[in-house]
Each structure stands twice: as C-alpha cells, then as structure tokens.
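hey can u check if this looks right to u? its 807 residues, i copy pasted from the old doc so theres a chance i mangled smth
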Amino acid sequence: MCPQQQKFESFVAPAGSTVYVSDRVSVRTEGTQRVISVHGVVFAHYELADRVAEAYAMIMLCESGYATQLQVARSFGYSARSLRRYQERFEAGGVSSLARAGGRPAGTRIRSRKERGRDQSILHLKTQGWSNRGIAGRLGVSEKAIRKRLHRLGWQPTAQPSLPLEPPVADEAGAAAQVIDNGSGMSDPGAVDTIALPPLRNEGEGSEFEPTSLDRDPLDRSTDRALAALGLLEDAAPLFAPAQNLPMAGALLAIPSLVASGVLPIARKLYGSIAPAFYGLRTTLVAYILLALLRIPRPENLKEHVPRELGRIIGLDRILEVKTLRRKLTVLASRKMGQNFGRELARKRIAERGRMMGFLYVDGHVRAYHGKQRIAKGYDTRKRLAVPATTDYWVNDRSGDPLFVVTAEANAALMRMLEPILQETRTLLGPDRRATVVFDRGGWSPKVFVKLLAMGFDILTYRKYRVRRVAEKRFVLRTARLDGRSVKYRLFDQPIRLLKGKLRLRQVTRLLEGGHQTAVLTSRWDLRDIHVAYRMFERWRQENFFKYLREEYLIDSLVDYQVEPDDPQRSVPNPTRQAVDKELRKTRADIKKIRETYGAIALKPFQGGTATLRALTAEQKKIHQELKEANDRIHKLRAQQKSLPKHVRLSQVRPDEEPVKLSTERKHLTNVLKLIAYQIESDLVNLIRPHYARTDDEGRTLIQTARPAVRRSTRTVRYRTARHALPAQFGLSTAASARPVSARATDRRTAWAAEFLAIRGSPGRARISDEIIDGIGCVVSAHGFAVILPSMADIESRNSANPGSEL
C-alpha cells in the first residue's frame, strides 16, 4: 500500500462534523459548506445559507428512498411537518416554489403598541413569580392565551435556588468530577472518570429510607433522572424552590397528617421499592394522595393540568404523566399486598383513635359496571335495579371516618358478609375490646346475631318485616345533648325474644310526626333509649360518606379494564326457574284481570245494562273457559317450578364461556389511598373545629378553599334585562343591572354575576367559571364580554371599610 493511500485511509473526520442520516447517507459540514454523500458518493453540495438547495436535497433523499422522512428531518434540524410542506410546495410549483417570497410571511401582522405593552406586562409579571392563571385573571384573558403568548415570546423559567433542607455534603464539589491524569498534564481519553456520589439511601439496619439528590436546581432534575436511568436512584428527593405564588400550594397542609398516618413506612415495609426509578414508591403514593385531595382522583384527569405546576407541589420538576402513574399502580397491584396494606393502616389508626371504635358502621356500596364483560349482578338501590356491578363493604368509626374496605365475592349480601368482616375486625381490635356493630336491614338474621354476640360484638340494627304497632300514648318524649347537638325523640323501650325465645334483645321504637313507627333492635342494655336511637339514626353518616366519595373522589370509576377468572362452582340463581317464575307472575296477573272482567259483567243487569240473559250467559261461559285455562296453566307452571332447583353452578349457566370478574387488586389499592386522603381531610377539619363554629356544616368546604386554584366549575345562568339597583351588600353604587330568572348555583356571587353581566342589555345565557384566581375572584363571560368578579371576602371587606364605594 502506497504512503498516500495509507494517509488517506488513516484520515478520520472530526466527530462533530459528520452526521449519519441512515446506514447509506451521511452529511458533512465544514465552515459554510455542506456535502451530502450516499454510499460514499457525493449526492449534493451547497452553502449553508442556500435554503432552497438544502430543501431540494432533503426532498430528493426522501423520494429516492435513501432515508425516511423522519430521519432526514431530524438530521437537518427540521420538523417532519416542515419537510412535508417543502414536498407539497415542490410538487405544486417546482424548485422555484421552495424559495421564500419577499416581504412579511403570510398570516403574520405587525403587533400594535397595545399588544407590545401587554407582552411587556406579561413578562414583567412572570419574572415576579406570577402564575399563568394569575396573569390571565389580572389581564382578563384565558390561561391558554397567556401560555401561548409566553411560548411565542420564548420565555423560559429562571433557575431558582433550592431551599437548604439538607446539610451540604463535604468536599462534594471536588469529588463531583475527578479526572484521572496520565502524567502529561492532559486527561486520558481512555480512562474512566471517577465520580464520588453521596449515598442514595441509608443502609443501616432499621433505618428509614431518606432519598438524596445531586441536583441543586429544583426546576431542573436532569441529574437525578440520569441516575435513575442508570439504575443508581431509587426515588427522587423532594426539592422545593422559593416562589411568591404557587398554585395549589394549600395541598401541602396535608403533609403532616399524611406523615402521621404511617402510610409511607407501612408501604415501604410491604412493597419494598418499585425498582430504580425517578418516581419511586414514596413519590407515587404521596402524589396520588395529594392529587385526590386536589380533586384529581383519576390519572386521566392529569391531562387537564400543567405537569410543572403540579410537580412543584411534591418537590419535583414535573409530576407523573398519565401512563407513568398507571404503570406504577399496575406494578404495585401485581404485588397483591392491597389487603395487607389496608389492614396495617387500620391497625395503626385503631391504636391512635381507639376511643372512636366503640361504634362501628358497616354497609355496602355497589359500583355499577357498564362495560362489555359479563360479570355478576348486584342490586343498585339508587336505580332500584339489578345491574352488573361489584360490591365493596366499608367499615366506618363512630365519627363516620372509614377504617377499612373489603370487596365482596360475587356481590354477596350484607347478611353473609357480616361474619367475615367482623372476624377481620376482631383481629384488628384485639380479643378484649368490645364494640357495637351498626348496620341496616340488609344484615337482618337472628342466626347471624347469635354468631356476632358469640364473637364479642354487640349489635344495633333496624327490625325487619312487620312489627306490632305500639299505642301512641305509651311513647315518652326523651331529650338529650349528644355530640354537641340537641336531640329529641318520642320513644318506647321493651324487651323481645327471637328464635323461639332463645335470643333476648332490646327493642326501642321511635314515633315520627306522621304516625310512622321505626323499631330499632340492639343487644346493649346499658345505654339510654335515646342514645340507642341516636346511634342508629346516625348511620346516615355512612350514606353521606358514600355520596361524598362518589362525587368528590370518584370511587365508582374504573381504574383498569383487567379481568380475572371467576369461580365456576359458584352458586347462582337458576335462569330456567327465573323464566318460569316470570311466566307464573304473568299468569296470576291475567287471572286477576279475568276475575275483574267477570265481576263487571255480573253487575251489568243491576247497573242499567241492556244485555239479554242469553248474551250474559254466553259471556260468562267464555270467561269461565278462560279462567279454567289460566288455572290449568298455573298448575303446570307450579309443578315445573318445583322440579327445578333454585340455584345451579355458574359453569352450568355458561357452559361455553369462561366466567370472569373484574380485577380487584388495583381498585382496592386506589380505594385505600382515597381512604387515606379522606382521613387526612377529616384530621384537618378536626384541627379547625375549636376555631370555627360551623365545622359540621361547612368544615370540608372551608378546607377545600385552601386549594383555590383547582376549585372550578362552569355554570349556565339564564337572565333577562330588568333595571333595578344592585343589592347594597355588594358595595356597588351602579344602578344599571338585571334580575336573574334562574341560576344553577347556591352562592350569592354567582347570582350577582348574572346581574352584572346583564348590563349588556340583551337576554341570553352567561358562562360563569367559578374559579378562584389567586384569591381574586371568578371569571364571567357572555356575548364576548368578560369580567373578573371579586371574591366574597373582598366584597365584605370593602363594604365594612366603605359601604358606598364603587367596585
């Protein structure tokens, strides 16, 4: 080989000057020149400033099949959409169409002085720490418009110093990147850099997991993400940046209660870790609970919020995306530890709040299913129908807070579930603690009562079936003050016996205003009759709890579409017998109609009828024949009914179909996490109870105002123009307004919003977005006109300072 050839082959292009588009195409740039080669042969050569030549070269590469559209666009720094536009323009007008026309690009315009001033105001407010929602409220535009304008202006958040939450690591700066010297004063490219990393977790025996971070900018966690990708980070440490305004920061009030609940150490003990990840076990659980408190109860609802804003709440640069949170929940559900997780949390809560466990409320909640799978049916009391569903049984303490939840097998009735549920409760309470179980008529069974009393539980329930009425004069008016409330009932107390005298219980009957009597049954002989009645009627706390969780936490929603095999030997109602029962009921209804018709014909002569005796006899014979046929059909159906069993195996009902049921593990896990969120909310309500007189009525609403930027709802208000003065309590002196016809709202501010908007003078509808914007108020829009209404606190404060001032 000649020296010239050796010199040519030993030449290596600089690393940063050549870009490989595909395995056949390479692009080399030197100075202002660029060369495109295909299989080592020059394909195109042009100057970097020649955009037409570059566009033509990219089009030819794609059309020749040397590289894909996406590969070419990425290599040349274009988007795939821009490359497609070049191709369309080339097909339409040739090479000349690739050149950009002179003048301002089509579709753009010169910004007015007003727009430039508005842009400067947006940038000024953003540098002061204002949120997009706050700026939108101040300028009277939507948050989306502010976000688009910031993107066009090229605004980037500035790095903010982190809070000194942890002591600095000694010699961290010197040990962060130490390069091995080869003795010549230059770094050796073949040597491996040694980086002294701080310990990512404590390895001491019995020590709790304490994550650390190498990042110092809370808004840029790229180092921690790189470590997680390398498998060196188990969970990202929370870093919080100082800010003058942070939406949804009120959720951080729940952190002390969350830590006190013990959810993190218990989850760490049962689940271990979720493998090396940036979003580890602690971050996933804390994020899900805080999202539930922020009324973001499903991962899908994360699409409606900005990830960066939510991430700052948990001390990260971004919160988990939808599919990431789903994947984490799936990993946790695969461990099959949901029941143990809920059990350990309940045991800890019982140890801390044992005084609240004297009365335990047990009831089931039916979650209707509307999918394509064939699953067991349950009776939905709200719809009064048997629908495909899954039943969860909840145990609540005396104050109505949830303790734990159990999913019933095949929608078993409360009567069958009481014994296993209370066996689980006995293991949590201990062998010596006695508790009273309160449930409704669905658990009525004297035989079950005997078993529960043998397990050490007292019972309190409604008496089922017909009860002998008590004379009204025997009722006695009882009054008491229980749980801070005055209670007044008309009661009658008496002992009763069930199971042929073997079971002796106490019956307390209440007389209502309309004369209706409600009988309550209990085994507690030590309580006053009014206390027994009060605890029984307080069972509605659990019903209100179900309604609250259904509306605020969406416990009825599906968390996945997975199914698991059902027990094929499970006993189900016989569908053949059900069809016979239906036909039997229909035949009995027909007999009733025939008898009514026979009676009407027999009374015709006495009611002035003109039918002859021959015609009357013929009609009677016809009815007798129909009645005989109906009775014969009933005898046959009864015989057929007796020959059929009431229940059969599930495999006999669906021989050609594998029985399935909805997967319960992931749903149970999310129920436990929402249960914790509700308990945290209850703890916050109890903290404000000594300082707020209306805690029972408005406590939870007041707690929700701590997260103002999330509370939003849109209402439609119909209004018509009718001039009259605005109410004086709003502190307005404007005389022009309108009277609302109807409003789907309960607060005064929404009704007043319709009045304020009707100044426009044309009747119609107004969209009212009741969204608290950094404590400012709500946004109302109609007919293209928007106004920011102050909050009620601002209105009241202005009225107290200057009742006659204008808003």
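The CA atoms of residues 176 and 197 lie 7 Å apart.
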